[in-house]
Amino acid sequence: MMSDFAPPIDDIRFVLDEIVDLPGLAKLSRFGHAEPDLVQALVEEAGRFAAEVVAPLNAVGDRVHSRRNPDGTVTTPPGFAAAYRQYVDAGWGSVPFPAEYGGGDLPGLVATAIAELVASSSLSFSLCPGLTQGAIHLLLAHGDPDLQATYLPKLISGEWTGTMNLTEPDAGSDVGAVRTKAVPAGNRTWRITGQKIFITYGDHDMAANIVHLVLARAPGAPAGTRGISCFVVPKRLVGPDGSPGEPNAVKCVSLEQKLGIHASPTCVLDFDGAVGYLVGEEHQGMRAMFTMMNNARLLVGVQGLAVASRAYRQAAEYARQRRQGKAVGATEPSPIVEHPDVRRMLLTQKASIEALRALAYTVAEAIDISEEDPDPDRRAAQRERVDLLIPVVKGWGTDMGVEVASLALQVHGGAGYIEETGAAQHLRDARITPIYEGTNGIQAIDLVLRKLPIRGGGAVDDLLADIQATANAAEREHPSLASIGDTLTAAVADLRTATAHLTAASTTDALAGATPFLRMAGLVAGGWMMSRQAVAARRRLDAGDGDPAFLAAKVVTARFYCEQMLPAARGHLAAVLAPADDLLAVAADVL
Ligand SMILES: Cc1cc2nc3c(=O)[nH]c(=O)nc-3n(C[C@H](O)[C@H](O)[C@H](O)COP(=O)(O)OP(=O)(O)OC[C@H]3O[C@@H](n4cnc5c(N)ncnc54)[C@H](O)[C@@H]3O)c2cc1C
Known about the structure:
Elements: H1 9-18, H2 22-26, H3 36-54, H4 57-64, E1 67-68, E2 74-75, H5 80-90, H6 108-121, H7 123-142, H8 145-157, E3 160-165, E4 181-184, E5 190-200, E6 209-217, E7 228-234, E8 236-238, E9 244-247, E10 250-255, E11 266-279, H9 285-321, H10 340-372, H11 376-411, H12 414-417, H13 423-430, H14 440-451, H15 458-477, H16 482-504, H17 507-543, H18 548-565, H19 568-577, H20 581-585
Parallel strand pairs: 3-6
Antiparallel strand pairs: 1-2, 4-5, 5-11, 6-7, 7-11, 8-9, 10-11
Helix pairs in contact: 1-3, 1-10, 3-6, 6-7, 6-9, 6-10, 7-8, 7-9, 9-10, 9-11, 9-13, 10-11, 10-17, 10-18, 11-13, 11-14, 11-17, 14-17, 15-16, 15-17, 16-17, 16-18, 16-19, 17-18, 17-19
């Protein structure tokens, strides 16, 4: 049974209507035409595109894989290139970018909803436009006018695609260890030499050119991250008329065989004196990367959400059809959806997804405000909020993606473990998301060491105060929401204790407590979002505004999350508060 993809448009619409403020974004001058009706229509159309054009490729891509041919070219699975052409023709990739370069000038929030739908339909497919967006953000922020004029229109239209080349065999989490060399070659060009590994869509047959953004070290560069520069290295050199010409000296020397995302070509790229162009200032490459990192990490959190959502909907459908065992009181075999334990698995998935979607979209909206609001104080406040929550969305979101995909497989029983069902692919595909774009361990360290100290702890204090205000509002709203307010209040208090402890702890103890802290922060941020959704759904129920079954399910799912999942936050507190001693006491050779 290979379930079709049914886009969760109603759930997305609920978040767009109730959790973020679309009319508020439409008041910002760049987004003036982003009327809520237009946005909702676009999202619906994206859902149709994802379901009809991309989703049918997901299983094929998993079976066939991308392959490297004897002549060194790379071929994606059947249907990928044609679907990508349709993606480009429909203009999906251009949605959030400036009209000046052919973009749609719509909020990044809208692009986030579209990205969710495309990643749900095929994570492998979505990575190509996803990486391209990263390259665009980087060039918009740091490219000189020549580079922007040459590359942005083609990247924004999607005619050309982009890659991010950071990783090398000895430079993974420690990007500062990059050894690829860049030597000035006159006429504003450089020659790039070295090997990059794990480069997503580093070569493929879906576009006329590939624009590699490559981190490399210029002569005399200081050691570490402060000595890294960023270069544009096109697969084909761009002629004076703007079209791709001679091949550059960059080759895909092999493709990795992987656990999942088989259709996405993961390349070892060899740069052999390839022509490159400096982006931004020499030695400032990491600074440039940081400007696109929030967007890229949000996108990966959304990938966790997207795969979870697809896996869950398939599991729910299976549970409605599969008959096994008799539910209490039944005389005939029951659909397994009638068993309380299966209900628990499904509701856990549904709650995780709804919490995560609301959080990810809230962060996307905050990015838009931080970039476009005319009020500098509001921009700064939202910027802080984004910086604080990005590691949570990426880390907690992708951990949830894997857990939900695993639960979705479990709902299928033995059939889930059999490839034909498709449940196994979701789990295999999801598993990369906690690893790339900074492992989740690195996200946790970023949260604790770099983000908690923002404004002397003021940013996290403000966040905790906002969450507490939501808990209070839930309690005031309706007696049926009282337990949501209570449990969220208790969890905020625990997170406050954990925050105070880590802020005062030694660096070693803070590093030791980082991952359980990130998990706590994710659970509490999820509770915040579920409380807001419960209040909104309750109001609409009382006003008779909307489908009562859909809205009642929102309230129950939020209560389930807050009463039965959120208390796990307290369970992580002991690990946050524990010193590193025991972790370090066991000798490395007996671990
Ligand atoms: C399918 C796939 C696609 C990818 N796509 C791209 C791409 O397009 N472009 C690109 O540049 N890279 C890409 N990557 C690389 C990816 O970003 C790295 O694999 C990732 O950053 C981790 O680096 P590493 O593999 O060297 O692991 P390591 O850095 O060796 O980490 C191993 C483990 O040690 C932990 N660790 C490492 N350092 C620390 C520390 N200081 N403190 C605590 N824990 C630590 C990590 O959390 C991890 O659990 C891709 C990887 C894969 C598998």
